[in-house]
Design brief:
Blueprint: H1 15-25, E1 27-30, E2 57-68, E3 78-85, H2 96-109, E4 112-125, H3 129-134, H4 152-172, E5 176-181, E6 187-192, H5 197-217, E7 221-223, E8 237-245
Antiparallel strand pairs: 1-2, 2-3, 4-6, 4-7, 4-8, 5-6
Length: 269
């Protein structure tokens, strides 16, 4: 499942045990996973669970419409799970994937569908994650040495890693449109084809996780941090969204019209 930071959280099962038990009944994990910060320390103030309430388990139930065989991890399946209470009676409404599914359901109730795509940028580093940590995350060596926005030559220098990410994502079933150099040294973006919101969020997370694992296998590392250095251009996460009729064939945005505003002044267009 994705946690509050968008990281995959879960277990690694043998194929035998997954087929015997988990495929039909799911597994369990501790509810504290939806209350932790980046360092995995539990943070107080959550209604779901706490030290006072006791950190109960919840259930991870496989969603077999969302699974992949990662091409960079032979013999492995990555299966996304929905998060339910331990009795499998109700969904955990604050789980990030469930929040999105509920939003999509509210749109569908109004006769709308959505199409979405995420556009992610990252810095590729000639560092392992361990060497970067030993440097206290400063003075890191980039794969590129100059501004490389759209540069094909610089892109070729980084192709051993970036090309592997593109190809292995395609082989995994994560549809890639293209990659290109970005403004910073060693900065790249890889764009995925659009999909419905939940599918796109799953693909987004598979891609981010897989890109890091592929870089690790190449003796490199990468970061999607928005601003890992105040001396360099930031890395964006553009979320492209469009609103359509229920069949997904006709846009329901009014062409040429100014966005309507609510009484609070927020854009409704």
């Amino acid at each position: 499942m994705p946690d509050m930071q968008g990281r995959w959280i879960g277990k690694r099962f043998t194929g035998r045990h997954f087929a015997k038990a988990v495929a039909a009944h799911g597994t369990h994990a501790c509810a504290y996973l939806l209350t932790v910060d980046m360092e995995m320390d539990p943070v107080p103030g959550f209604a779901l669970t706490s030290w006072d309430k006791g950190y109960q388990d919840f259930a991870l139930v496989p969603d077999f419409s969302a699974w992949w065989a990662p091409a960079w991890l032979p013999g492995t399946a990555l299966v996304v799970a929905d998060v339910l209470d331990a009795a499998h009676e109700k969904t955990i409404s604050v789980a990030p994937r469930q929040v999105l599914k509920d939003q999509v359901a509210r749109a569908a109730a109004k006769g709308w569908s959505l199409k979405m795509a995420s556009e992610l940028e990252f810095y590729l580093l000639r560092e392992t994650y361990e060497s970067a940590q030993k440097k206290n995350w400063t003075g890191l060596e980039h794969y590129g040495t100059y501004i490389e926005d759209y540069h094909i030559l610089q892109g070729t220098r980084e192709e051993p890693v970036v090309g592997a990410i593109r190809d292995l994502m395609e082989d995994t079933g994560v549809p890639v449109e293209n990659s290109k150099g970005e403004w910073g040294p060693g900065q790249h973006e890889i764009n995925l084809e659009y999909s419905d919101p939940v599918r796109m969020a799953d693909l987004h997370t598979v891609y981010k996780h897989g890109a890091k694992e592929i870089a690790m296998q190449k003796g490199a590392s990468l970061t999607f941090m928005a601003k890992y250095s105040d001396k360099l251009a930031g890395s964006s996460c553009h979320i492209h969204a469009s609103l359509w009729d229920k069949a997904g064939r006709k846009s329901v945005f009014a062409p040429g019209a100014s966005p309507r505003r609510s009484s609070a002044g927020s854009s409704a267009g």
